[in-house]
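Quick one, tokens below:
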């Protein structure tokens, strides 16, 4: 059921992130799918449109017709990831009546590793997650963030945070820090996966999934009995 629904979705990404919709052409789709592969391999600093053009056997100028710069491309890919994750969360939790179980299911999806399930886009979703884990902070830790936020470039990410906020409130409307807890879950999950790869001695994620930590955190914060 989940796979079927996800295979039919199209993520609506802010039009300010691209000059021409990459989903509108074969070249545009090649830019997206190959940029995911290359960014995962090289990292944001070493990634260039020249290298991407060589990979897709095209020209830099053709890529610039779709994206103004690699920062906008990174923001596009992050939005794509958050959009896919949001759909996963909505579809997987929609039929769960118990508020506690709904939140814990959402936590599994947000903090766990993604699967390469079929969608309208052919991007490698494992590689896309790797990019978000490694590079998402670079997308908004800069002097342009306020203007970009006003332009709606982080709308999908913020919308997912607010979905989790509503789940938290449905369990305990009196809880004082629903926004902080929800945003900590999303960003913290990325951070724990990063630590697991690069700073193993300062995370417990080596011996267990980050999901277990965040479930424990939420269960204790919201005083959920028997894990929902």
């Amino acid at each position: 059921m989940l796979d079927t629904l996800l295979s039919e979705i199209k993520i609506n990404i802010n039009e300010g992130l691209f000059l021409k919709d990459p989903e509108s052409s074969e070249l545009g789709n090649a830019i997206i799918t190959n940029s995911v592969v290359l960014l995962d391999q090289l990292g944001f600093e070493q990634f260039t449109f020249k290298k991407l053009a060589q990979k897709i056997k095209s020209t830099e100028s053709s890529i610039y017709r779709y994206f103004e710069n690699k920062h906008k491309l990174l923001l596009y890919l992050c939005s794509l990831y958050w959009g896919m994750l949001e759909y996963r969360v909505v579809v997987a939790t929609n039929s769960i009546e118990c508020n506690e179980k709904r939140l814990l299911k959402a936590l599994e999806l947000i903090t766990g590793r993604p699967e390469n399930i079929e969608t309208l886009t052919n991007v490698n979703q494992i590689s896309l997650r790797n990019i978000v884990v490694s590079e998402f902070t670079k997308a908004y830790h800069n002097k342009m963030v306020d203007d970009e936020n006003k332009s709606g470039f982080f709308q999908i990410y913020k919308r997912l945070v607010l979905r989790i906020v509503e789940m938290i409130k449905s369990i305990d409307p009196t809880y004082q820090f629903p926004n902080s807890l929800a945003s900590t879950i999303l960003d913290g999950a990325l951070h724990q996966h990063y630590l697991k790869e690069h700073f193993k001695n300062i995370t417990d994620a080596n011996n267990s999934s980050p999901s277990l930590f965040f479930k424990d955190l939420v269960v204790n914060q919201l005083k959920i009995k028997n894990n929902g």
